[in-house]
Design brief:
With about 400 residues, this protein is an alpha/beta fold. It has 2 domains: about 5-55 and about 305-395, Alpha-Beta Complex (Aspartate Aminotransferase, domain 1); about 70-300, Aspartate Aminotransferase, domain 2, CATH 3.40.640. About 40% of the residues lie in helices and about 20% in strands. The strands form 4 sheets. The chain has a 7-stranded mixed sheet with strand order 4-12-11-10-7-5-6, with helices on both faces. A hairpin with a 3-residue loop joins β16 and β17 (about 370-375). The structure holds pyridoxal-5'-phosphate (PLP). Pyridoxal-5'-phosphate binds near residues 104, 106, 223 and 225.
Length: about 400
């Protein structure tokens, strides 16, 4: 079968919920992807901020293969070795207290919402608690996560959603304060908004939220699903600000390609929320997923990946700023580390993404007007030069 046949077959059998780009990806190696025709692509999307280590990173595949030969699944009725190892690494790296593994980001959000509601319920016995979320946020597609996602377009047809959610403006502390009341059990946000258009939080905003939450005993939930796992140059983006959440969600690069997520609780949240019977999952934290998580933490450390991101970021930013200077229709750069966005004005972002793909560069969009660059964390300055060349070609066409 050729590429067209695979695409036709997919469209015949797979529910059409994505307008996919016309390419069938077959293999990856390092920071490159290959389609079924053998065409090479430079990958600055990493499977939507997932493949932090790039493809076929030495040691990663073998760790998974070894685990497959031992045991892939046990259920959560029993202990397993990789979960114990992965949990220790997540908790130690975050300085938090306990972790619950899920299969995806949206499930991690569901768990965080349940933690917040149970925490508040334990305090006052009420069942009418509220959560404050941000406009232009993205937290996932399951109904609870969709309810705290500040994008009416994603929500409309699926109402009624989960109740008790109020929206405030990102980086506008007063808009949050205006929504806080005695029912508020949590404030949820991404320290760097991803899908909404790559908006980093300000220091004042996060500090202000931390203060509100401390004062009112509200849980602060940081969604680190996209901005976490080293993408911004710290393992978790909140570590730039020195402001720790009560609950954190992870996914995407947590397993570098194996479907796995997590919600992580500080001591206060862990000690006063979910107990046996409150939450569960058949697959979550299964040995294969946790073997990936565990190996990812080891490889990040061995490769000194955070140091690498921080060393290369100034060059990355400089090259992107040059594009802002060069092209009238690129009006700004926003981002942190290897999570960067170029704001495009007066041209459809989708067209640029399509042209780039045709030219052998994989990039994605964020929101309606932002080109999103979330490459594997192993990219070099040479890869950045190559990306700029391919992107300029696509912009000049
Ligand atoms: C991708 C994403 C999610 C949802 O994760 P899934 O694994 O797709 O369910 C939630 N929050 C943020 C910030 C994300 O980027």
């Amino acid at each position: 079968m050729n590429m067209n046949d695979y695409m036709t077959e997919s469209e015949e059998y797979v529910l059409h919920t994505y307008n996919r780009f016309p390419v069938v990806l077959e293999k990856g190696e390092g920071v490159h992807l290959y389609d079924t025709d053998g065409k090479e692509y430079l990958d600055f999307a990493a499977g939507i901020a997932v493949f932090a280590l790039g493809y076929n990173y030495p040691g990663y595949n073998d760790a998974l293969k070894n685990q497959i030969d031992n045991i892939v699944h046990t259920s959560n009725l029993y202990y397993n070795i990789p979960m114990a190892e992965a949990a220790k690494k997540v908790v130690t790296a975050s300085g938090m207290s306990k972790v619950f593994f899920t299969n995806s980001g949206t499930e991690a959000i569901e768990g965080a919402i349940k933690v917040a509601r149970k925490y508040a319920y334990n305090k006052d016995g009420h069942t009418d608690h509220e959560i404050i979320a941000m406009n232009h946020s993205f937290h996932g597609r399951s109904v609870g996560a969709l309810s705290v996602t500040g994008n009416p377009h994603y929500q409309e047809a699926f109402k009624p959603l989960m109740g008790g959610v109020k929206f405030a403006d990102f980086n506008d502390l007063d808009s949050v304060k205006a929504q806080v009341n005695d029912k508020t059990c949590a404030i949820i946000l991404e320290p760097v908004q991803g899908e909404g258009g790559i908006y980093p939080a300000t220091m004042e905003f996060l500090q202000g939220l931390r203060d509100i939450c401390d004062e009112k005993d509200i849980l602060l939930i940081f969604d680190e699903i996209q901005c976490g796992m080293g993408r911004t140059g710290k393992l978790f983006a909140w570590q730039h600000y020195g402001i720790q959440p009560d609950v954190m969600t992870c996914a995407k690069a947590l397993g570098c390609g194996v479907p796995v997520g997590a919600f992580v609780l500080n001591e206060k949240a862990a000690a006063n929320s979910l107990v046996p019977g409150d939450h569960g999952t058949t697959y979550g934290g299964n040995p294969l997923a946790c073997a990936a998580v565990s190996k990812v933490f080891d490889l990040f450390e061995e490769a000194k990946l955070l140091e690498h991101v921080n060393a290369v970021t100034p060059y990355f930013e400089k090259k992107l700023d040059e594009l802002v200077d060069k092209y009238d229709f690129i009006t700004a750069r926003r981002g942190k580390g290897f999570m960067q966005g170029l704001v495009v004005s007066g041209r459809p972002v989708g067209d640029i993404v399509k042209k780039a793909l045709a030219n052998g560069l994989v990039i994605i969009s964020a929101g309606s007007d932002v080109l999103r660059l979330v490459p594997p964390l192993i990219i070099t300055e040479q890869n950045i030069d190559q990306m700029v060349k391919l992107l300029e070609k696509s912009l000049d066409e």
